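Bumping my old thread because nobody answered last time. Still need a sequence for this structure:
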């Protein structure tokens, strides 16, 4: 494991993940709360991504199936939308690019920005490409929520000092009137965001809470802590997906396209040996495609963060193509995934 200190040193030269055009060393590094927020969250995702990479490395990995579905959908939509060479593409939450048909993208586009809070993962993806293709690729270390440098660093400061009620108040104030800094400013011909929106906020906050608990800085369980996690989940479910779609709209060119996919329903073990409630509603996995079951799940609130896409995108985008497929994520867990190819509306 790289010692935190030398890891910080390495990160100092990258452009700051808060989206200022300065380096991390000249910007958020100098504020210990902000630095902690970025390092913790980058580190948490680095661990998730390393585990995902390991799971993806076997030949019959479930990630290959997901990648195949995505490649089919993307190439069909790209064919329909005509010429696209010489153009610029952004891949948001690119991670290990395990579910992204990078070959197809590198062949079809001239400039590719890989964007993620886990800079190590995207640098490794770039380094794996042949030298002449590497020239086309830029790695951007960025927080796509625009929340870590202010909101999250404040929340972490309170949590570190066991002031859970103060942390709750910060989240509550944000939930009531969310204000978000725009994390990206370039414009792209194609913007890709694949199963990223559900990962943007809650999983990493939960991870930090668990880390602080294991360090003895937070109690194992308490009512204020459950309230905090519950409002963080509301932010993830209600605010993050809207903000993410706004981001997609703001960085796609007027004649560009957005490819957005989200996990909509989950079947099986949803972690910590807790069965997803959807499991009892279906006799066979094919039932997950049934519109009646889908709307019942929605009524009962069983959908996954970000799966509300169809409720939000119509204001900002028109739909070119849509597909649904099953992703056998692991032996015990299956997702119904939904892909959307969207054109921005002029608003
Ligand atoms: C489900 S993974 C996407 C999988 C990825 N496409 C792959 O093939 O490995 C979600 C990605 O979002 C990234 N992520 C999570 N929170 C983020 C944030 N606030 N800003 C930028 N990236 C974030 C994670 O590091 C992770 O790589």
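Sorry it took so long. Here it is:
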């Amino acid at each position: 494991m790289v010692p935190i200190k030398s890891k910080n040193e390495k990160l100092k030269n990258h452009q700051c993940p808060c989206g200022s055009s300065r380096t991390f060393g000249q910007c958020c590094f100098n504020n210990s709360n902000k630095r902690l927020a970025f390092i913790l969250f980058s580190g948490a995702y680095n661990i998730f991504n390393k585990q995902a990479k390991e799971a993806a490395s076997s030949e019959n990995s479930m990630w290959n199936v997901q990648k195949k579905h995505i490649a089919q959908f993307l190439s069909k939509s790209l064919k329909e939308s005509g010429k696209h060479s010489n153009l610029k593409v952004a891949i948001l939450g690119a991670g290990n690019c395990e579910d992204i048909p990078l070959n197809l993208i590198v062949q079809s586009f001239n400039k590719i920005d890989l964007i993620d809070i886990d800079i190590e993962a995207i640098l490794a993806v770039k380094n794996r490409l042949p030298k002449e293709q590497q020239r086309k690729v830029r790695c951007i270390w960025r927080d796509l929520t625009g929340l870590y440098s202010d909101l999250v660093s404040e929340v972490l400061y309170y949590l570190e000092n066991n002031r859970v009620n103060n942390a709750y108040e910060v989240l509550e104030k944000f939930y009531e009137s969310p204000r978000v800094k725009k994390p990206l400013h370039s414009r792209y011909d194609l913007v890709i965001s694949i199963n990223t929106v559900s990962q943007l906020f809650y999983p990493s906050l939960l991870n930090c809470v668990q880390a602080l608990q294991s360090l003895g800085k937070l109690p194992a369980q308490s009512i204020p802590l459950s309230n905090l996690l519950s409002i963080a989940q509301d932010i993830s479910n209600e605010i993050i997906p809207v903000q993410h779609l706004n981001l997609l709209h703001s960085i796609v060119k007027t004649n560009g396209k957005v490819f957005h996919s989200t996990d909509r329903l989950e079947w099986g073990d949803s972690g910590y040996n807790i069965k997803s409630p959807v499991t009892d509603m279906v006799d066979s996995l094919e039932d997950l495609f049934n519109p009646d079951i889908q709307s019942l799940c929605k009524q009962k609130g069983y959908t996954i963060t970000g799966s509300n896409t169809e409720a939000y995108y119509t204001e900002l985008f028109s739909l070119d193509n849509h597909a649904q497929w099953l992703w056998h994520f692991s032996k015990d867990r299956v997702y119904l995934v939904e892909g959307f190819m969207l054109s921005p509306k002029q608003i």
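The first strand starts at residue 88 and ends at 92. Let me know if any region looks off to you.
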